[in-house]
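Category: protein sequence paired with discrete backbone structure
Discipline: computational structural biology
Format: plain text, a pair of labelled lines
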Amino acid sequence: FVTQSVAYDHNLTDKNSGLGVLLLKDKAGSLGLKFTSVGGAYSYALNITRKHRIRMGVRCSYVWRGIDYDHLRFGDQIANGGLSISQQRMDENVAYPDVSAGMVFFNQEEYWLGASVDHINRPNQSLVYQEDTRLPHKVSVHGGYNIALKKTVKKVVYSKLTVASIYKFQQQWDQLDVGAYWTH
């Protein structure tokens, strides 16, 4: 397995916005299953009060998936002397757009709560010719809270405990992560 990733984002403070570029390339196993994603992201922060904000964002990517069929052997190739009916029904590469979005409500010093949805457009990712295999939505809900343990006389926090969690689900799979960390 070989994975390469490059990302860059820039905060446009005067416009309450952020821009990002993402590149991910992955090659899995000896069969050459490959995945490449190139995308861009945009976010906007909406000030609700002096301390409370909502940040919303969207990511649009273009994805290429493929496999190296020279390394595959099908049972019908052995029976038919090298010609594979299975191989003829498969595409070597597929490409599709993929859209995700999310938002987070937060107070800069105390807490945050947010959610995101990946694969909003449910792209068809199948390598099998004329088969419809839609990528299911992935939903994430996350939040956290900072507990001040020690403050200076001017109420500057220099020791805190942060409790955070994220719950993710996609079709019948789900995952809950809960954790805490101390900052001093």
